[in-house]
UniProtKB/TrEMBL annotation:
Molecular function GO terms recorded: SNARE binding; zinc ion binding
Protein name according to UniProt: Transport protein sec24
Segments for region (Disordered): 1-65, 89-125, 141-165, 556-575, 1039-1059
InterPro entries: ADF-H/Gelsolin-like_dom_sf, Beta-sandwich_Sec23_24, Gelsolin-like_dom_sf, Sec23/24_helical_dom, Sec23/24_helical_dom_sf, Sec23/24_trunk_dom, SEC23_SEC24_subfamily, vWFA_dom_sf
Family: Belongs to the SEC23/SEC24 family. SEC24 subfamily.
Species whose genome carries this gene: Cystoisospora suis
Amino acid sequence: MMYPPSQQAPLQPGYPAPVPGTNPALQQPYYGNYPQQSVPSQPYTNYAEAQGGPGATYSNGVTPSAAETGATKTASYYYPGGAGGSVVPPPGPYSSSGPRGSVSGPSTAAPFPGSSGAVPPRTPYYPTAGAGTGYPYPSGAAPSSAASGPGMGGLSGADGGFSGSPAQQLLQDVQQFNAPRHFTRAAVARVPHSSSLQQKLHLPVGLVVRPLAPVPAGFAEVPSVNFGSCGVVVRCKRCRTYINPFVHWEAHGRRWVCNLCGFVNDTPQFYMRGLDDQGKREDRFERPELSMGSVEFVAPADYMIRPPQPPAYLFLIDVSAAAVASGLVESACMGIRSALLSGRLPGCTQSGGQGEGQVIEDGRTMVGILTYDSAVHFYALNGGGSGGLAGGKHRPQVLVMPEIDDVFLPLSDDLFVNYVENKDAVLKTLETIPHLWRSNTCIDNCMGSALKAALLVMKHVGGKIMLFSSHPPTIGELVTKRSGGLAGADGAGGGSRQQQQQPDREVELLKPASEVYQQFAQQLTQSQVSVDLFIAPSSCAPSVVGSGYGAPPSFTPAGGYQGGQQGPAKGSSGAVGGGTGVGCPYYDLATVLPLAQLTGGEVRYYAGFHKLQQGEQLENEVFHIMTRTTGWEAVMRIRVSRGWRISSRHGRFYLRGTDLFVLPTVNADSTFSVLMEIDEQSVGGGGGAPGAGSLVNGSGPGGGGGGDNVVAVQAALLYTNSEGERRIRVHTFCLPVSQNIQDIVSSMDPEVVSCLLVQRAIEQSLRSKIADGRVFLQTSCSQLLSVLHSVGSSAGAAAHPVLPSLPHYGASAAGGGSASGGALVEAGRLVALLILGSLKSTAFRPLKDVTTDQRVFEWSRLLSLPVDMICAYLHPRMLALHTLPVPGEGAAVLDGNEEILLPPQLRLTSEEMTQDGAYVVENGEEMLLWIGRSVAPHWLSSVLGVQSLDSVHPDIAASSIGDTQAPLGLHVRAVTEALRRERAPDWMRLSIVRQGDPHEQKFFAQLMEDRVPSLLLTFAEFLQKVDVRAQLQAPALPLMPGSAAGPPPQSMQQQQRTY
């Protein structure tokens, strides 16, 4: 018996090496994180995969294809059919030595290739273990190895004193086989056994799933399982759950019990195998689907009703006067060309040669180009065999369609072509478009008609529309206007009654003005087309009389501007790109957003766009979106165990039926979150999960249908990768059920809890008003801290002083005791810190410098970002750049992996700053570099090439950092580039803020531990406000790696700055 190489997970610093003679999987740091479950992917409502049988057809005859598995390589496992169920195991360095498949092999492994294993990965928010801050929640570290023996997982003496082998085996399976943390993260690793206990805890029970997430360096790739000529993927016949490590086998392997619904299934003949003396399959560790929580099945023919879709991109570019003047047309074309020439386009492969002209390309990728102003412009892209454009012409063949009320295709061919076969024509067209329309003076916009034309071009294939827009449509189809009741009342001239009604009117502006874009988005999903929005309203946009755009509603609260005047102050905090908002017209992003929200697309918003300030950002984000791992024609289902149900879902998708996620495209950044609750009807109104009263029933995970002692979640994504292969990515995650409050709260992941609370607050704000969302956040934080204080002060907590760590959700999940009361309180304070950041952020702060479009954009991001990016937004990072060492003068600037060493992270308070310093603050969206008036002239000359601060131009100085080629300048540039790489997928724009500039407040608004105009509370004061049981002294702020432990200053004056 051989073991797959992926079974030997890399070890992280601080975790024990595998013990000789034991299964290395039981020592895995990664899979022992916390219980996770995978979601079975299902196609469409009438599709064979959704119905559970072949032969069904989709309503429009389109097959749901799948997405590329990722930029990661997968180990392939092929199981040929046969009566004996013969298996060809993958090669591996380990040999079996017992019924459990114990192995012998290396006892240590470095966490990253080329590293010594002594330094854990650098984390943005939390100190490394033992950093001296006393904070027990390092982020991003790998979980400890699975504990063994009595008390494993903290269950000994906690859940009724269960220490027998069945409970130990159950928890070992959960820790060993759960899906990895980069794919799934749970809010709590233990779930309450009843709805009354869940309400008492005030903790969200939910899961964040990122199905195609990149695999971190040093971790096993997702294995690919191919059942070959059998043509069958083993699944439950009742609930359609995919085979996974947590099913229970009986009758000598002839039957297996589904761990989600308890149905007893007959084992297919080709899949038969005997059981060992523990009731487990003998080939358990030879089959990835039985020994790993994340696998990828090669889908048989029953999972497709047409050939797999090729990668397809249609570029829809606004060439009206506003877009040309702001540089949007040029930036869009440059970004697209850069991605096409990079050789990293999905579906295109390159081999041979070293120069661009010598590369041999082969690919399936299809490309189309449309532009629009008051008419729709089609481009014939067939090279015609001449090596140039159609007919050998030097300019592209443009077909103009002025009939925008009833668009049709002027050509049957050449509008959507194979990129490799027509590469020269496509690139030449993109190069020509900015020059072709540089003198355009048309101010009208028929974006809606252009979108319908784009759908006609690609609906027979599907794919992605990349829409670049400077303002919404003014003529043609899909033109919408806000009702006069919202835009007509003058907020400035009204009395107190009008001011009381303003918040309600603001919420209405955060919702679509009509449902036309939602209806059109549903048409797009039926044709497997998604839309990526690049919204770039520009200060160059001319006023369009009678259009309803360019002048926002005359209403003054945080949602917009009054009377068409400039709303936010100069330099106000904005969306991605950090636009100043100067002269930025109102776009009504809320109305157009469903195009991306319901089709699985992307949204990028550039306030006050101009090429000089934000062109580089747009180009880099276009490059990333086009070259990342992408899947096509995808559908996904997330299933949970009987007795539980999914109460809410977040992300960018169209929900068909009750639980089918329709995703025309899905990518490596796509993230979905679900909240779960106990289904009272399915458990007979008893208020408890079925069988949750015991952790020992001898049935293993899933309980064999008798008494479920774990809650299983399975996420299954059916998609077509960019190589044209139909795949099913399955993630399975299990959560033990507990009656012990202490065990549940000590298994909390503060980051995921905070993210789910923020998403619920956004839902609450849209249902009523933003103020209710802010109240919900404060109330939830206060209730949670109260519970943590109660549990932390109990005798049981005091008797177990072992501190928890975030990756394995507390000491009770790591084994050997419960989390200390102090550690639980610190976890609650982390939640409070992130909640405070959300209240002071653009998403929730009640100030007039936040426009409606900005808030809509931020809410859309927070509902679909990965957890680490949400935490970066809620708690920015501040670094000092004036203290960077000069390379070559003895100080180390690179770590052992040849990565740039970042300076220590500072607390987000002005008391950390001095007048002779330079400090950068980043939140995942943008970077702000503040330079004090007394900064050293040598620093200015080395970094920016100027002799005085007055010579620094805020708009263009950021692009000149390091141009002097001085070692210090190059070091500063390397630090900013390293920050950008850490914050992918967004490309953070760097802006310069000089001390005393009018927009300096934009920088200090990020210092959320100080008082800011949006919330006049420091972090210590906020804790005392929400935590009634907190002590008077402020806690040691634990989130600053490299900073000395200790309490913050006792007094923090409003916007105090120690210059």
